[in-house]
Design a protein that fits this description.
Mean pLDDT: 91
Number of helices: 6
Distance between the termini: 61 Å
Number of strands: 17
Strand content: 25-35%
Helix content: 10-25%
Radius of gyration: 21 Å
Shape: globular
CATH class of the largest domain: Alpha Beta
Low-confidence stretches: none
Largest sheet: 6 strands, antiparallel, barrel
Order of helices and strands: EHEHEHHEEEHEHEEEEEEEEEE
Structural class: alpha/beta
CATH superfamily of the largest domain: HUPs
Strand order of the largest sheet: 12-15-14-13-16-17
Oligomer: single chain
Number of domains: 3
């Protein structure tokens, strides 16, 4: 009897091709779409579409279900993200969504049906000699391992990421060869719950001072969630030199600005640490670290101090942003990650 797998079908090309590849590998594929929005609304969003997911399932000849998950999505992703923004952080809701919703809920649905595996269209790979290990996807421009650092060994053991072995161009080639409508669809976009920006989701924002590094007032900001570390445009202040947001200070409800040189930090502190193998490699170790999804990894020394990690970069990094994820790699392998608390001072 063929092994069964639940495939999360979003309507995009990656998940459609993932379902096809798993069927070609001999799995019995059951497609499920997690609908994260109000069931009375049009079932289409910039991250997913029930209609296009159902169409992909029909084109592939797969059974397809829709599972309403809007309450879980709101509780596990949207509300924590909004609360973090109000505290002056810049969180990465996509990391939470991949951990708590897109994978965890799919695994829950699979287990409810007695199905042992969950397949998705993530661009990541798994090595299964002994304990499963998470690797970067083969296409460096589409690699999504950054979002998956928090998967447990048990979750990773149930995961299947077939498109991780392909480049994005190869994925689209497969979809075109099958005549899938998904081959012609545009890429999904991040931060799907805030198409007008985070500030639009938080109408009761408090204005406050824009301060330079010496504490002098340069203007008034519109509310902390309008700003992020490294931002230059939209400050509404004049200066003889370019000024950037270098920090958000929720205690003073202040935006701190300074020259670009002030954006560079020699390292960071991180908390909420999670490890692919269930525990860190050592109390002190060397790793490549990635401080945001699109950033290049940098060599660093990591030291565990209580429940936090002190990360010292080989070279100072620009715009280390509290609330973002920091992910630790050894070559292509993901070791784990955490949440940035603050940058180290130069």
């Amino acid at each position: 009897m063929a092994q069964r797998v639940v495939v999360g079908l979003s309507g995009g090309v990656d998940s459609a091709v993932a379902a096809y590849l798993l069927r070609e590998q001999g799995y019995e594929v059951h497609a499920i779409t997690l609908w994260l929005w109000k069931p009375t609304a049009t079932m289409e969003n910039r991250c997913c579409s029930v209609d296009t997911a159902a169409l992909a399932a029909r084109e592939l000849g797969l059974p397809h279900e829709v599972v309403l998950a809007q309450e879980d999505f709101d509780r596990l992703v949207v509300q924590p993200a909004l609360e973090a923004y109000e505290r002056g952080l810049t969180p990465n809701p996509c990391t939470w969504c991949n951990r708590e919703v897109r994978f965890a809920l799919l695994l829950k649905e699979a287990r409810r049906r007695g199905i042992p595996f969950v397949g998705t269209g993530h661009h990541a790979r798994i090595r299964r000699n002994g304990t499963p290990r998470l690797l970067r996807g083969r296409d460096p421009t589409k690699d999504q391992s950054y979002f998956l650092y928090s998967l447990s060994p048990a979750e990773l053991g149930a995961a299947l990421f077939p498109v991780g072995e392909l480049t994005k161009a190869e994925v689209r080639d497969v979809a075109r060869s099958l005549g899938l409508t998904a081959a012609r669809l545009p890429e999904s976009q991040d931060l799907c719950f805030a198409p007008q920006g985070i500030a639009a989701c938080l109408p009761q924002l408090r204005p406050g001072p824009i301060l330079d590094l010496q504490g002098r007032s340069l203007g008034v900001h519109k509310g902390l969630p309008h700003y992020t570390v490294g931002q230059r445009r939209g400050l509404g202040i004049s200066s003889p030199e370019p000024l950037y947001v270098v920090a958000l200070d929720p205690e003073r409800n202040a935006v701190i600005v300074g020259p670009e040189s002030a954006l560079y930090a020699p390292g960071l502190w991180a908390t909420d640490l999670l490890w692919i193998e269930g525990s860190p490699p050592h109390r002190e170790f060397t790793a490549e670290v990635q401080i945001r999804y699109r950033s290049s990894p940098v060599q660093a020394q990591v030291e565990l101090v209580g429940v936090q990690a002190r990360v010292q970069f080989v070279l100072p990094q620009r715009a280390v942003t509290p609330g973002q994820a920091v992910v630790f790699y050894r070559g292509e392998e993901v070791l784990g990650g955490g949440t940035i608390v603050r940058p180290l001072s130069l």
